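[09:14] KT: can someone run the structure on this one? pasting the chain below
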Amino acid sequence: MHLFVDISSHGFGHLAITAPVLDALADSEPNLRLTLRSGLSEAKLRERIRAPFECMRGSSDFGYVMIDATRIDRTASAVAYRAAHADWAGRVRTEAKLLSGLHPDLILTNVSYLPLAGAALAGIPAMSLCSLNWADLFDHFFADEDWAAPIHAQMLSAYRAARSFLRVTPGMPMTRLGNTRPIGPIAALGQQHDLGLGGDKAVLVAMGGIAHHLPADRWPRLPGVRWLVATDWQCEHPDAIAFESLGLGFADLLRSVDAVITKPGYGTFTEAACNGTPVLYQRREDWPEQDCLIAWLEQNGRCGEIGEEDLRCGTLGEALARLWQSPRCPLPVPDGARQAADWIRTAGNRAS
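[09:31] RB: done, structure tokens below
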């Protein structure tokens, strides 16, 4: 089977969902050929995906233009969507030609809709996989704009052209698509490592794959707590450590820390819950996916909400104390990767 996979580079969550599925599929399909296209770096893709693949650089979607990890730029996003659909039929024809030249048996997207439209025109079976879709988010942000209805209709048509949309748990309802197939949670499981902190607690600050710099240099010191932050922050806090210096993959790092500070996002939320890591989160500004993610995490993990001011000033001691005193709960089983792999294998073998 030759599977063409398009992975959105709007943060790292789309990769976090897709990677375990591709690895599970490769385990059951030893002759699987994978071709991946993404705006993420090849190094980031190979960090997450164990299965061999051919890499194509490029982005077929942008998701939303972001101010930072918690806020979208509505004006810039509107301009970008109108530009992307100005010659939609031409873009679909170009995509269909590219896909036909690759000769895949099946196309999988997370969660771009252009390849689905191109696949439909080229007569290639296609599927999508995610906790959200851009059509529902577009409708949330732009439904009242007089220019939005034709674009929304083109988005919906592309998603509906897919053989099925594998809606992971937790996920948005997606009632308008008509082709959703619910599957379980997807998360990478890590191995616990001794971080060598001499008994201090490690708190990972990971706001996802979208640039978001917190002023951690000015945070007050908390006795017995070390902050694990990104190298490019160049943080000079005396208790901060660049997490890249530990040499661990994200799942192993998440499994090894005592808490993670983040925003609501599928990858970090499900991986934290499935690895037993408590979560402090700052809500995203008007992001409709977050409600189902938060509700699921409250049922399946230990978590607490903090505000923007708490992160700006570093007033996190009480919230962390409450988090660590909260009762543990059974770890959820991330069985969605196997379920998705079964769906994809069946569709791909039928096509080939």
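[09:33] KT: thanks! The mean pLDDT is 97.
[09:34] RB: yep, looked fine to me
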